[in-house]
Design goal:
375 residues; alpha/beta; Rossmann fold; 16% strand
């Protein structure tokens, strides 16, 4: 089988965690299926091959434009030409867009459905572009993959799509995310938090991450309990950083907030496994990679009560209203003061982790590819 993978991401924000996750899925697919040929298409120049294997061809088709006529040209002309030349049996897109000019079966991964259920986070030009093409992409796709039942339901609610072509493949934590012993936890805290306990946020600094509201909740927590607890924020460097850095410059507890950027995956895994708790106050959540990875590290979670988060964490996390900083602070204080509750959440999280595995997720992706080709 000849499998083409388009790794381009349409939306310009909040993609680093998702892209890292999908790269791991893709690497496993390549290693597990050495008899298949893979074409990996990237849209940025790179000095090294991302996926080094004898059955992989990597092609760079550069473009800085993600929407508009130039983006359509990238997909329907440049990418289509590469797919035809490779003679692909199937195309898997990391994003929700399809190529209009080919007959090859296409699989799209709808990882970010904010252009339907919360257009507040899109620019005016993005709103127009997605409104014009979203229905066409979904109809053109042979298979639609979602990472949560929440996203699947949003698609079914908003569009007329054949239900049998929507496949939900739940998130599973990557294998580098695992529980650490106390000695390694203390060593990690010493390096990244001067030896202090810390709450952890991992994601973007974009407005949809709701990081400002989380900071307000953390401020109330600090004011009421006067603890030495830190807040570690791990985020990739983007143009969205300006607003959060301006906020931190005047933030009362700025010495207790540590912004870590461009951290290696190994260090992210160690920091996650050493955290007092993971906090996710997102206003838009179609997938919960960081939450599942924290749970696999036996770290308690407090998160928004919207999107796919309640579905993912079941009863293994504290839920809060992400629009209410007082409610966020209340849950942080509960985690801090109630050790029995914290331990209970950890045990419930272990039950969730025991039901899913990264290997099974990779296998589910392969079965979806196989079924799409044979349909």
């Amino acid at each position: 089988m000849r499998i083409a993978i388009n790794t381009r991401i349409t939306l310009m924000h909040n993609t680093s965690v998702y892209k890292a996750y999908m790269y791991n899925v893709l690497q496993s697919l390549i290693l597990n299926h050495s008899t298949h040929e893979f074409l990996i298409v990237v849209d940025f120049p790179s000095s090294k091959t991302l996926f080094q294997a004898n059955n992989v061809t990597q092609q760079i088709i550069g473009s800085k434009t993600k929407i508009g006529v130039a983006a359509k040209y990238w997909y329907d002309i440049q990418l289509a030409k590469a797919i035809k030349k490779f003679n692909a049996d199937v195309v898997l897109h990391f994003d929700c867009r399809t190529i209009a000019t080919i007959k090859t079966p296409q699989i799209i991964i709808v990882h970010n459905f904010s252009f339907i259920h919360n257009t507040t986070f899109l620019s005016h030009s993005e709103k127009i572009f997605f409104k014009l093409y979203e229905k066409k992409w979904l109809q053109k796709a042979s298979t639609i993959v979602t990472l949560s039942q929440f996203t699947q339901q949003q698609i079914a609610k908003s569009f007329t799509v054949e239900i049998n072509k929507i496949h939900t493949i739940p998130i599973a934590a990557r294998n580098i995310f695992t529980e650490l012993n106390q000695e390694n936890k203390e060593a990690t805290k010493l390096v990244f938090a001067a030896g202090n306990e810390y709450f952890l946020y991992i994601g973007s600094t974009h407005i949809e991450s709701n990081l400002i509201q989380l900071l307000k909740g953390f401020s109330l927590f600090k004011k009421r309990l006067q603890s030495s607890m830190k807040l570690l924020v791990i985020a990739a460097s983007t143009n969205d950083d300006v607003a959060i850095k301006e906020k931190l410059a005047t933030y009362k507890y700025k010495e207790d907030v540590l912004l870590l950027q461009d951290i290696s995956e190994i260090d992210v895994a160690k920091i996650t496994a050493s955290a007092y708790a993971l906090i996710d106050a997102s206003l838009k959540k179609d997938y919960c990679i960081t939450v599942i990875e924290a749970i696999q590290c036996s770290i308690p979670v407090a998160c928004s009560n919207i999107g796919c988060l309640p579905e993912t964490v079941e009863d293994a996390a504290l839920l809060f209203n992400p629009f209410d900083e007082k409610n966020i602070a209340e849950q942080l204080m509960l985690l801090y003061k109630d050790e029995n509750l914290r331990n209970d959440l950890i045990e419930k999280g272990r039950k969730i982790s025991s039901k899913i595995s990264f290997e099974n997720t990779v296998q589910s992706f392969y079965k979806t590819i196989e079924q799409t080709v044979n349909r």
